[in-house]
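## retry 2 of 3
previous attempt timed out at serialization; input unchanged, resubmitting
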Amino acid sequence: MERKNVAGNSAKHSAAGHGFSSLPEGCIADVLALTSPRDVCRMSAVASVFLSAAESDALWERFLPADYREIIARSSESSSWRHFSSKKELYFSLCDYPLLIDEGKKSFWLEKRSGKKCYMLASRELTIIWGDTPGYWEWTSLPESRFPEVAYLQAVCWFEIRGKINTCMLSPRTNYAAYLVFHAGRSHGFEDVPVESSIEIVGNETTTRVIYLARYRSEEQAEHDDLEYECVSIEDVRSWINDNLTQLYSSQEPGKALLGLEDVKTWMNSNVMKLFSSQENEEPTSSIRSDLPYPKKREDSWFEIELGEFFIEGGEDTELEITLMEVKAGHWKDGLIVEGIEIRPKGDL
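## retry succeeded, writing output
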């Protein structure tokens, strides 16, 4: 009796497998489209019956946003995005290589697991109080940034940054979070100072939270940094590099240098961000409160801090505003480098 049951079950499984594999590729693709890109890749890796459908353009077209063509057209690089061998290749390119759109003021990509839309608003797309006033903020370029310019804080008492995006640009039925992307290695005035962030969707309740952009430093360390690095900007460092390297190389015996002067200048200028970020502490010490919301380091060498989260139901066509503000401490703040505000589905990518 036991052998009969085993044989019967085996026959049923075989028949079921044979029946599924006999379905048209389009039907299998329709079933796979009800899952997620990650699930499709997993299933095609373990079951050959899914392999052909998992490669089809019809399937991956459904994982791409409905308006992906319009979004790509907003990029100055749109012509180079027309030559993909498949929709699957296009999908993963949009996941791995953020696309600059709207004159380089926004960055767009897809979350690889789900295909949900992600954006970063460049610092030039943000409203920064005193942002265009020399002496308060400086606009500079960094090779580490995806954008042509980033904002470098020279000195302000009133620190306020606002970013806006229309909710129709985001994926429906998705819980999003917004993050400030920045460097604070040589900053002053932010150490354990509460900064208020808020997210408001017109017609909905505003959510607020308190965050911290930098950790506390000992008085000795703060005094050392103030004396050594006060009023030194990125451009000051680059100017020093160019002037002093020229003088150094001119004093060397001809033919003895292992690298050319321009090669060394290029390398040092491209790595100046590392100099400014070398003082950032990634882990709290025993004297620092570890329960406070501090920034975390990203894979791209920048830091981020969550500003809040919100849910997009879908079908809305309204404005979402993200605000970051510190105006209560009453002291000067400087040294922060702002790349932008990132908006992505809640959770680690």
